[in-house]
Structures
1.
Amino acid sequence: MRIIRLAGLAALLAAVFGGGLLAAHAHDITVCTCDQACYTDEVAKVSCERGRARFFSHGLPDPKDPMMRGITATNQQFPALHNYEFEILLKPELAGRPTRTDAGPVGVAVNGVPIFDPSTQGPADRNTGKRPSAFEAGELDVCGGHAGRGDDYHYHIAPKCLIEDLGPDWVEQDKKPIGYAMDGFPILALGWFDKKNAVEKDLDPCRGMKDASGQYFYNVKTTSSWDVLNCLSGRPQHFARDRWFHRQDRTGKEITGIPIRFAIEDSSRRAYGGDVCHVMTGVLQGEQLLLTEGRTRKVRAEEGALFYCNKACYGLFFEADRSRAIRGRAIYYDRIADGCPRGFDVSGLKTFTPYEGPAQSRKGPPPMGR
Ligand SMILES: [Zn+2]
């Protein structure tokens, strides 16, 4: 209903004042949670019933987005297809007090990619009580996202590439949401393209405000840290369900992915029969490698690939056992290629030199869910 009223008003104002002026002065956002036209092609089957909008996605952005590019610190996770079902409350209400968010999902973008709190799951700083920021740690790509513990791609800051793809008509003129928070309130990016629309000074501590009609919304920060929201003004809801498979190593253990300094240049994904092969190329920087003969070697900058097709076809780094002969942490490259699917050319990949010495105990960080 609201859309129709807005459109009518917009047409009237455009006729009287001209379109340019309208963009700067119409302080009403578009509420269109049930409308497929308010989501990208990556979102399917939008429906509304029992007070909630429902939609599905595989959790990956437009294939043209430079996913994973620009990451310098990674847990060697790959962005894989997931099976998400989202539910967004249609008539959210402001709660008596805001709810703090912690590491984990806080919403979803209109392309069906989850949005997470800015922090990682790393331990909180003893002095500030805050967990490390994924953005400051170099974990995010140029679009503001990365692959997490479940090989799930998600954003931690404003989804920059998505906002650019949606464009000024969507974001500034129509004032359509770029996502929804887990309390049901829409997330906008006013001021991203057009500074005249900036609302930064009007935002409450959660980064929210009401439009002229009283509709509450969050607005992403358009500069520096690109924050999405700082807390939830409504009541957090269970809003997402997902199904996926964890990757396993050759011993059948779940791969949890140790963090390494690896500047990702490219990431790709292709199906070969029943396997999906993920490849990430980039430069390993400032790491200590365990060599087959037991010595270690410092790496300043070395190009290579991380890949995974199945538990008998992968090339990934694991942490070497600590020993008195090794100072600090060493990592080794495990390259297994006996079960690679037909058509996947490992020899055509520039891999790192594999470690072939005595078996390591393959300790890694404990599984953390997502
Ligand atoms: Zn993350």
Note: Residues 1-25, 366-370 have pLDDT under 50 and may be disordered.
2.
Amino acid sequence: MRKRHWKNRKNRPCPDCGKMLTYTRKDSFDRAVGNNSVCKSCAQSDRTLTIDTIEKMKQPKSTQHKKKISKSITNWWEERKDERQWQTLNPNN
Ligand SMILES: [Zn+2]
């Protein structure tokens, strides 16, 4: 199904998703091959993945999770402490 006027165009599949990419210029095609560049949507998701990875490296999930748990336990005890204080302050209550 190749059309004759696409003769000067270069096609290469995206190395990530296999989507066929068409290059109108030989130099951009050669550069894309040299960089092993992916299609626009894959480049986008790659960048998101990288940011996610950096965030995960900055704040390891396990540490964050532990902090959350210890904080919630602290809050629980603070609440109980407050209740006891109120009971002491209002013994008739
Ligand atoms: Zn792709």
Note: The pocket of zinc ion is lined by residues 14, 16-17, 19, 38-39, 41-42 (CB under 6 Å).
